[in-house]
Each structure stands twice: as structure tokens, then as C-alpha cells.
Known about the structure:
Order of helices and strands: HEEHEEEHHE
Largest sheet: 6 strands, mixed
Shape: globular
Low-confidence stretches: none
Strand order of the largest sheet: 3-4-5-2-1-6
Amino acid sequence: xxxxxxxxxxxxxxxxxxxxxxxAIKIDELTVLADYFIIASGTSNTHxxxxxxxxxxxxxxxxxxxxxxxxxxATGWILIDYGDVVLHVFTPEQxxxxxxxxxxxxxxxxxxxxxxx
Length: 117
């Protein structure tokens, strides 16, 4: 499976589960960390955890892909590392504080016609 297909699946799961301000950025030309970052917000710590669980379940059951690592399950920022794709889900406060969009502002943002971000 190519990285873009994984990004597409994750973004659509997040959208279906009411994540806010979903952004997918292509970072492969800027770093060796990954090909893509996906950044999204949940409305609370509970919503953040639920979004991540839904993504993890969908990606595992539908694509057969397991995360390499998960960080921050007890905080307002959960990171799921799928290797070439890294998902960051924040509470609004944590997202504003860390401001990953500003840090990666040179990256190309992907557009999904059927997603309102």
C-alpha cells in the first residue's frame, strides 16, 4: 500500500468521526521522518482518544496495517506512527500551543474535495 492511500483512509475516518481542522501535509522533501503528517483536533481528551482508536481500528481491520508506535494516550496530544505517515490528534489548546502547521509551513498541504477542513 502506498503512503497516500493510507493518508486518504485516515483523513476520511477522522472526517466521519467529526474531527476538526483536518490537515494532511506532504513532508517527504523536507525531512526523513515521514512522507506525510496528518494533523487534526478533537473537542476534548475523550474525543481525541476516540478518534485515535477509530483510526487504529479502521486501518488495522480494513488495510491490515498496525502502528509502529503510539505516544501520548493520557494527554491532549496523541501521535500514531505508521512509518511513512504520522497522525497527530490534539485538543484545541494543545494544537494551538504546539502549532505544528507553523513549524511545517513549507510543506505542501493536500486537498480532499469531499472533506471540509
